Amino acid sequence: MGAASHLAGRQLPGRRSKRMWTVIEPLEPDNDHTPGQFSVGYVVESDTGQRAFLKASDLNLMMGAEGGDVIGRMQDALSAHQFERSILEYCRGSNMDRVVTAIDHGDCPVVIDGVRDAVFYLVFELAKCDLRSKIVEREKADDLWRLTALHHLAIAIHQLHKGGVCHNDIKPANCLVIDHSLQKLADLGRATSASHPAAHDAHHDVGDDTYAAPEILYAQSVEECSLLCKPQRRRASDLYQLGSIATYLFMGRMITPELVLRLEPAHRPPSDQNGWGGGYASVLPYWRHAFNDVMIDLECSLRTGRTRKQFEVLSPLLQAIRYLSEPDPRLRGHPINRAGLEKDILGLQRFVSLFNDMRSRLLIVR
Amino acid sequence: MQDDGRSHVRAMVPRWRSLARTSRQELRSSRRATSLSANPSASLDKRLLAWRRDRSIVSAAEVVDAAATLGQPEAAIGPAKFLLDSGSDVAGGVLRAARRALGQVADSTELDLGNFGSAPDQQVQARINQLKDRLRSDPRDALVAIEIARLQTLSGQAKSARRYVDLAVRLQHNNRYILRSAARYFTFVEEPDLALHVLTNSDAIRSDPWIQAAEVATSDLCGKTPKWTHKAIATFTASTKQDVASSELALGLATLEHKAGGKRKLVRRLAENGLRNPTENAIAQAVWLERNAAIDVSSGVVLAERTDATEALAMKHYEDEEYLKCTQNAWRWVKDQPFSPRGYLLGACCASIQLHDHQQALNFCEAGLLVHRSQPLLLNCLMFSQTYMGYIHQAEATLSRLEGFSRDPQIGPFVDAGRGLLAYRRNDIVGGREHYLAAMKTASVNGDHSLALNALIYWLEQEVMSGSMNRDQWYFFKKSAQARIFKLSKERRHNLQRVWNARSKHVDSLFDRPDLFAASPAGLAPAASLALPI
User: Fold this and answer.
1) ipTM value
2) Residues B65, A293: C-beta atoms closer than 8 Å
3) Entry pTM
4) If we measure between CA atoms, which residue out of A240, A327, A234, A86 comes closest to residue B171?
């Protein structure tokens, strides 16, 4: 175990704020399941009394498992840390108020049991919880809260895309509830941006594959993979995941795992000789068919326990999810944008407005 | 009543089932799956670690998700059970996913077409409407389009189905399921050229043996040579190891070789290769080939292990004179494959001729005519059964439908025989004789001696039943008919002999029950004085 795992009670200097951060207690063991992320979370408090979340890493954690190319892994991890820091700075500078940006960052040497180690850290605003604990457990969120969360997350992705950043890892664990009425999108560790090159830029599957868009899961050839690394395809993948989050908010299920469970084993994503080996284009009709099954179930979920008027307010969500999570990545996005009436065919502005409008209408019929 | 559905030339036309009932092997990708990720289960491992450390609803739900996406369903079992035990605290969608992960959820959207023959039309129509609504929500769902087409075809709306077949093919012109379904549809509506066009226009035909098998069958129906034949024959004869994907292609090629008068050794070798890991369609083709190409590929051994091979089983039981089992399997066959009239015909003929179960024969015909609305041989069987059941008015109505085909030289003798049968039932023996003699004459003129003899068999039965033929005359004709049957070719004799055996046995038994005889009308010329046109 490296120094990053033994920071409780220590004081760490913040480079940007010039404040000292006192480490209060470790958070739950790493809830970040993105492959290649190695960090430990803590609750910290500044000398001005502000509580925050500190994500710390050290060389030991960065080295990861034993064996292999240790130097290469350390280099990757250090550049990943550097990348996350710089992209967070960029988002902060671009006033992306729905994205969790770093309050502070720093690095310092720490001596544990007489052994000197270096610790790197990023300090974020402290969230109450993430979407999972609100949605997976019954009756923790009402429709207004869900629509507000969706609206905020759509704004977050819209802000990122406008800034030329693709998140690539939108999932419930990265959707943080800062306070009851404010949700933000966190974890830009797997983001990509033309202005911020990163080691993972060349990988098509940078985010958590459990919730990844289907074209990522089924990619089988080098050509397919390199196509998916293009910014427009990465943005399309973000749109898919926004639609998936919308489904999660109202059905409790992300689209990818829900849909995979409905597919025949032969049509599931490739894994160790099983699943579909023919690439995404050839499995698309089966995926689309199962996607429509999920949409039918979502409609049932929306009808259940709601008045007709409430359902009428929520029903545009079904079409919005169809546009966002359209199985064919080339067809994703709002049809008006896609028809060429807007410059940006993957623009989210219309969805942001729709979710806001739905929210307002729900307030009236509630 | 002549055609028992086995004497047709069988082509290896693809099966058309709903997606849920299509064999898993047929739906598999032709390429082997490979994971490009260096550590594909990393995110599942992390979640499992989190689940072991903290058994919460959130961590359990995350494991269920990761296990599903990453193709490791066994990892989800414990967490899914935990979620179900936590019941009331868990969101409904998560609970459903847990049940699905444990295999406790069956898709209820699938209409049980296993019972299509008896499914009320309303139920099928409701399902079609439901699917049309669904297609309106997503007009790109080719699988819904083809399912609408399938249900419409099954409910006798084959013309309306065309639009949906075209749509499905336009949307997915390389998808195996869509292409094979479209090929089956176009074959059903007797447009094999279009089936061939759809298949040959796809890229899949270059490498997919399932599509190549469909091409072989449809090319054969169009009288054309399939494009990929020679290459495929070379592959199959060189290899002794075949997978299920190639079984239909191998049997299709064997059939093609047999029809082209190819060497029996090559036909046998192709058939044997196709039977190494066969689909039920391939087994049925092998059974047909064994009988028609006089080869032995031990299909019975394969058949013994395959209860799903309903067509092959029905044919095999007929060969083995196990008629009850034959009708049972014919029912299973038509429920699985209602697009082929052969199952209905075999079932109806077997029930009627061999088992004298006219009610069951009538049921076969009525079920068959729901799908094959203008199938003349089914109409002929129906009329026969109705007559024997005593439903003369219905039989007359059926005959008038059959008369619509009287210009068809193949069907003409059936129409005449039908008229004759009904004339005898109306006690119009002279008229009956005229019609039966006309049937025999037309069939003879067409060169179909087997059909002419068939008409003779039924005419003799009607003569005995009407009381116009005594036992001595019957024995005379019986001997004469048997001699004529012996003169037929081996294959035709094989078919007709069974009918003759069953019917002559039936007539023999009539002499023991004089109550069944009608009184012979006075002044009627003896049957022996008639000049038979065969």
Assistant:
1) 0.89
2) no
3) 0.88
4) A327
